[in-house]
Specification:
Layout lengths: L3 E6 L1 E14 L6 E14 H10 L4 E7 L3 H12 L3 E6 L7 E7 L2 E8 L9 H14 L4 E8 L7 H13 L4 E6 L1 H4 L7 E2 L3 H7 L12 H14 L5 E5 L5 E5 L4 E5 L12 H14 L4 H16 L9 H8 L11 E2 L1 H13 L4 E6 L6 H12 L3 E7 L1 H8 L8 H9 L6 E5 L4 H8 L3 E5 L10 H6 L3 E5 L7 H9 L1
Parallel strand pairs: 1-4, 1-8, 2-6, 4-5, 8-9, 9-10, 10-11, 14-17, 15-16, 15-18, 16-17, 18-19
Antiparallel strand pairs: 2-3, 6-7, 11-12, 12-13
């Protein structure tokens, strides 16, 4: 088997007790929960592995368990999800269990059962097995995800051994989700994904006085984490309902994405889903921003489900194929992502409409043209000329608005489903890759050679010329602004 993701860390059995409350106990001022049913799910590292597998990426889980019935339940659940497990039953160790009492869909109480794995007298049998099997499969490993819930699966020795393997296998990505106490020990990590409070703790900041709502502040946190870990390529700070922020050392760029949903059923396991999806996306070759959109979308689906749930590839692909459900920022795609998106739509016989232009100083004429394009039916992909392309077409003083801001404004239009930026010589290859059913241009192009038109028509598509709104243009708008 090639192209495997290995997950190493603390597996937890998540136990949900669902019931109703109709009275207060006469023994103490506490509610009496009448239990209706129990549910068991893989949690912790086991949830990460389940999430990777649900996204159709082969996965193997390395995790200690206890010689107990909870381990049997956990391993059975993983088996039903087709997760390959290399577990070691440790003496004097209990499989960690988180029991949540749920009433009316809300958690009213949680109690945990756990011991530290590395305190077991047989812990070395687990760590030696992990090191041996990781070495044996190293040539097939695309990534290692460390899921350290501080329950003793990851000892300092195992931490160092995993990082040693990363050094000798530079093409194997190392993703780490660890508690603040151990995060900075992962000096060879390629990516870390602490949440807001964890990032603040690592950096000695009081999260109670810091602003999780500030994109710039959280981007600064991500960059500060990268400065603490000199080999880190990507630092991501997850921010719950505020989305995520990141710093990419390879490009020296920071950014933020909002949360892609306001429908939250349960936030349990959202971080597990995020790192699993991020690892899968990067292993599949997506660039950083596209990978983060993928992970953010997976998290949006995860929190819309009750309990510790996994997100399956088909539902995620369908969710992302309809980006009008998401923030307009999710509509901004690289060419690779736009082509993949179009392929997904074609696989379900959806209609694709393509319109392109500079959209400099967005005005009502642009909106009219794009709305008419949308009325052609299907999903509207807008191609946006790059800054260099606009300058070559329109003159040295153009564009008035840079490509990032032009794309952001076009994406905010309800009629637009996706936006992709291109250089002038990339337009026809982009159209050929997207294979739109309809190519839309303004009526002023009638009788001229429209890039991509021959390809679309030869493939059974149509070219639609939209009458332009009279008196509206970027040039006239600029003249009005200048007075």
């Amino acid at each position: 088997m090639s192209n495997i993701i290995a997950v190493v860390g603390d597996s937890v059995l998540d136990h949900y007790v669902h019931g109703d409350v109709h009275r207060i106990s006469p023994e103490a001022p506490v509610p009496v929960v009448h239990t209706k049913y129990d549910m068991y799910c893989p949690g912790g590292a086991a949830h990460v592995a389940s999430s990777v597998q649900a996204l159709n990426f082969p996965c193997i889980l390395f995790s200690p368990v206890g010689p107990d019935s909870e381990a049997s339940r956990l391993l059975f659940a993983l088996d039903t999800m087709n997760v390959v497990v290399s577990s070691t039953a440790l003496s004097e160790y209990s499989t960690p269990v988180k029991t949540r009492i749920m009433v009316g869909g809300s958690q009213v109480l949680r109690f945990d059962k756990e011991t530290k794995a590395f305190d077991s007298p047989t812990y070395s049998s687990f760590s030696d097995n992990v090191i041996f099997k990781l070495k044996a499969t190293l040539k097939d490993l695309k990534a290692i995800i460390v899921s350290d819930y501080a329950k003793g699966a990851i000892s300092p020795h195992l931490c160092n051994a995993i990082q040693g393997l990363r050094i000798v296998s530079p093409n194997t990505f190392l993703f780490v989700d660890a508690k603040p106490e151990s995060l900075l020990a992962w000096t060879q990590a390629d990516c870390v994904t602490p949440n807001f409070s964890e990032a603040c703790s690592v950096l000695g900041i009081d999260s109670r006085t810091a602003s999780a709502k500030s994109d710039s502040f959280c981007e600064g946190l991500a960059k500060a984490l990268a400065e603490k870990l000199p080999n880190l390529s990507l630092a991501v700070v997850t921010r719950a309902q505020n989305g995520c922020s990141w710093y990419d050392r390879n490009t020296n760029k920071s950014g933020s994405l909002p949360a892609f949903t306001t429908c939250k059923s349960d936030v349990i396991g959202a971080g597990d889903t995020f790192i699993a999806a991020l690892a899968v996306a990067i292993c599949e070759g997506r660039d950083v921003r596209d990978a983060l959109v993928f992970a953010n979308s997976a998290s949006a689906l995860a929190v819309s489900k009750p309990g510790t749930s996994v997100v399956h590839r088909m539902e995620l692909d369908m969710f992302m194929a309809r980006p009008t459900q998401l923030s307009s920022l999710a509509k901004l795609m690289s060419q690779q992502a736009a082509i993949s998106w179009a392929q997904q739509l074609r696989s379900t016989n959806e209609k694709i409409v393509f319109a392109n232009g500079c959209f400099d100083l967005l005005h009502a004429g642009h909106v009219h043209m794009l709305e008419q394009a949308k009325f052609a039916g299907g999903y509207l992909l807008v191609g946006l000329n790059s800054d260099a392309s606009v300058k070559a077409l329109k003159g040295a003083e153009r564009p008035f608005v840079n490509a990032a801001n032009r794309a952001r404004m076009v994406a905010a239009l309800e009629c637009v489903d996706a936006v992709v930026t291109f250089e002038q010589d990339e337009l026809v290859p982009l159209i050929q890759s997207v294979k739109p059913d309809v190519l839309v241009k303004g009526s002023e192009y009638a009788g001229s050679d429209i890039p991509g038109a021959d390809f679309v028509q030869n493939n059974g598509g149509q070219v639609l010329l939209v009458d332009m709104a009279a008196g509206l243009s970027t040039t006239s708008t600029a003249q009005i602004v200048r007075g």
